[in-house]
Amino acid sequence: QVQLVESGGGLVQAGGSLRLSCAASGRTFSSYGMGWFRQAPGKEREFVAAISWSRGTRYYADSVKGRFTISRDNAKNTVYLQMNSLNPEDTAVYYCAARGNLVLTTSLQDYDYWGQGTQVTVSS
């Protein structure tokens, strides 16, 4: 069992930056693939970024490539999402998710545990 708690969301102006954190409980955190997803009002939840347990593999959605960076600190049981050059289209609730499998994926259905989400609002 893994419990996930996101933090770091807030209101930022376009062009600004935020860093989201996701703290995980559970002694096997280092063996989980971790992902970030987001859901804007009236839209389906979508993939943002994912990182393998070893940090050797990272995936990004095309819409955030070059602006967002996912990282993890297994010693702290924490995964991060550094978001730069934010624009209003990035406004959404951001969710952290964990996948108990060595194969990293971008599909929502493949993730086993989810956090409660943190709101990110980007003003123009």
Summarize it:
The chain is mostly beta strands and 124 residues long. Helices cover 0% and strands 49% of the residues.
Q: How are the SSEs ordered, and which strands pair?
A:
Layout: E1 3-7, E2 10-13, E3 18-25, E4 33-39, E5 46-51, E6 58-60, E7 68-73, E8 78-83, E9 92-99, E10 113-114, E11 118-123
Parallel strand pairs: 2-11
Antiparallel strand pairs: 1-3, 3-8, 4-5, 4-9, 5-6, 7-8, 9-10, 9-11
Keywords:
single chain, 124 residues, 4-stranded antiparallel sheet, 0% helix, globular
If you had to describe this structure to a student in words, what would you say it looks like?
The chain has 124 residues and is mostly beta strands. The chain has no helices and eleven strands. The chain has strands at residues 3-7, 10-13, 18-25, 33-39, 46-51, 58-60, 68-73, 78-83, 92-99, 113-114, 118-123. The strands form two sheets. Strands 2, 4, 5, 6, 9, 10 and 11 form a seven-stranded mixed sheet that branches. Strands 1-3-8-7 form a four-stranded antiparallel sheet, with no helix packed on it. The termini are far apart.
Helix-strand category: mainly beta
Over the alpha carbons, how many angstroms does the gyration radius reach? 13 Å
Question: Approximately what portion of the residues adopt beta-strand conformation?
Answer: over 45%
Number of helices: 0
